[in-house]
């Protein structure tokens, strides 16, 4: 390694870590907001300055060389320091203006959150909300988002989490499916029915209702998808019976609840942010607004109704 060469700035470290964390130039480029050729050129320039390769290609993934591994600990330390600087500057912001990124899953982020944000915009017209739809747990410590709506209690340290509501899940089917194949009256009856499931195999999807985490209900599984929205569409078009949240089922057309006394699952919904960002005025404004609206809609999330009665 050429000892006269050095990392020029934080951008070099970000590039190096993005390639490592995401495994490819394409994924790193997407995360950094660059093109793949740009990422490739910057990596080549970085390696040329050190006169040694930092990565080798192993199949579809980029893996560290010994030289790359030797600077990893220092790169992570610099990353932590830069993120701490960003957070320290962020918390000084008292103005209700600027961008806030919120992460949410399909369904919650598309069906419920969007109309809520219309009302938020009317109250805070100078705050721009960026909605990141992602079924995985985004890394708030690395500022992939400012706040997140998550199913299940978060376990990462340095996060503030507020439990907002319980999300209930039940079995649903389309009227056409039930007219053709009949309506089950017991869970055991599902063994003779077509089932639609959520498939997490080979993905980073986080759901207690997804295969292979969940214990499958009896039945002939004719459709699996890694997308909850695709799963919902499959149920709507009559492919089979599926586990859908009561809130989502109540907000779309064409679904009939099956076995209404059966509870497929109940999962807590949490609002999460980094501990140091709680003092940012615009982030706090959005967090408090969403928390208030979720709690107002608690019966909708729990059982698909618009009132507690």
What does this structure look like?
The chain is α/β, with parallel strands linked by helices. The chain has three domains: 10-90, Arc Repressor Mutant, subunit A, CATH 1.10.10; 98-158 and 270-303, Periplasmic binding protein-like II (D-Maltodextrin-Binding Protein, domain 2), CATH 3.40.190.10; 167-267, 3-Layer(aba) Sandwich (D-Maltodextrin-Binding Protein, domain 2). 39% of the residues lie in helices and 23% in strands. It contains ten helices and eleven strands. The chain has helices at residues 10-22, 25-32, 36-50, 66-90, 108-123, 175-181, 228-236, 246-251, 281-296, 298-303; strands spanning 55-58, 61-64, 98-104, 127-133, 147-151, 159-173, 194-198, 220-225, 241-245, 256-258, 265-274. The strands form two sheets. Strands 3, 4, 5, 6, 7, 8, 9, 10 and 11 form a nine-stranded mixed sheet that branches. α1 (10-22) crosses α2 (25-32), α1 (10-22) crosses α4 and α5 (108-123) packs across α9. The longest helix has 25 residues, at 66-90. The radius of gyration is 23 Å and the shape is globular. It starts with 9 loop residues before the first helix and ends in a 6-residue tail after the last helix. The model is unreliable at 1-5 (pLDDT under 50).
Index terms:
3 domains, 23% strand, Arc Repressor Mutant, subunit A, 309 residues, nine-stranded mixed beta sheet, two-stranded antiparallel ribbon, disordered N terminus, D-Maltodextrin-Binding Protein, domain 2
């Amino acid at each position: 390694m050429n000892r006269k060469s050095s990392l020029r700035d934080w951008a070099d470290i970000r590039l190096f870590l993005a390639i490592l964390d995401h495994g490819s130039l394409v994924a790193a480029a997407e995360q950094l907001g660059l093109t793949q050729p740009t990422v490739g050129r910057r990596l080549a320039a970085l390696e040329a300055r050190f006169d040694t390769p930092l990565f080798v290609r192993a199949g579809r993934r980029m893996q560290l060389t010994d030289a790359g591994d030797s600077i990893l600990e220092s790169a992570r330390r610099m990353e932590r320091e830069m993120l701490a600087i960003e957070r320290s500057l962020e918390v000084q912001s008292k103005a209700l203006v600027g961008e806030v990124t919120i992460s949410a899953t399909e369904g919650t982020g598309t069906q419920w959150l969007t109309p809520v944000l219309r009302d938020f915009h009317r109250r805070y017209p100078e705050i721009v909300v960026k909605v990141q739809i992602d079924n995985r747990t985004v890394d708030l410590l690395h500022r992939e988002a400012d706040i997140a709506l998550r199913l299940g209690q978060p376990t990462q340290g340095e996060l503030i989490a507020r439990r907002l509501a319980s999300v209930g899940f039940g079995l649903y089917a389309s009227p056409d499916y039930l007219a053709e194949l009949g309506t089950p009256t017991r869970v055991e009856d599902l063994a003779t029915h077509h089932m639609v499931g959520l498939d997490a195999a080979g993905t980073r999807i986080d759901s207690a209702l997804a295969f292979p985490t969940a214990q499958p209900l009896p039945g002939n599984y004719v459709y699996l998808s890694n997308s909850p929205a695709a799963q919902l569409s499959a149920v709507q078009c009559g492919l089979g019976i599926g586990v859908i949240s009561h809130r989502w089922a109540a907000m779309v057309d064409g679904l009939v609840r099956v076995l209404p006394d059966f509870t497929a699952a109940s999962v807590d919904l949490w609002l999460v942010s980094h501990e140091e960002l709680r003092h940012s005025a615009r982030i706090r404004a959005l967090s408090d607004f969403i928390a208030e609206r979720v709690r107002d809609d608690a019966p909708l999330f729990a059982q698909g109704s618009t009132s507690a009665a």
